[in-house]
Amino acid sequence: QVQLVESGGGLVQAGGSLRLSCVASGNTRSINAFGWYRQAPGQERELVARIGRGGPIFILDSGKGRFTASRDNAWSTAYLQMNRLKPEDTAVYYCSAESLLSTATIWGQGTQVTVSS
To answer: What does the pLDDT look like over 66-97, one tens digit per residue?
Structure first.
């Protein structure tokens, strides 16, 4: 089993930066990919970034040039660096993990990101 805990959210002014972290515990060697999703009030959850064994494999169009997804070599921590934040980036951000041992996606509890104008 893998458990995920996100941190790093908060309130920031437009143009500022935040770095989200996602610490994985348990059988981290089974993790095949990390994902970052976000969900704004009244909207569906959307994929922001995904990083697999070969490196980042997806970045949301609106995040290109501003967001960078990375992970450590031990697959124990994933990061989402967000620069030049905009009010429309305000959402709850969730970390996810895909395991080689299960078809179910593992989710963290989410961290709130609020960008003020």
So the answer is: 999 999 988 899 999 999 999 999 999 999 99
- Gap between the Cα atoms of 66 and 48, Å rounded: 11
Task: Kindly report the three-state secondary structure assignment for every residue of the chain.
Answer: CEEEEEECCEEEECCCCEEEEEEEEECHHHEEEEEEEEECCCCCCEEEEEEECCEEEEECHHHCCCEEEEECCCCCEEEEEECCCCHHHCEEEEEEEEECCCCCEEECCCEEEEEEC
Residue type, 96: S
In this prediction, residue 31 carries a pLDDT of 93
Tell me the one-letter amino acid at 53.
Answer: R
Sign of the C-alpha dihedral computed for residues 116, 22, 58 and 41 taken in this order: negative
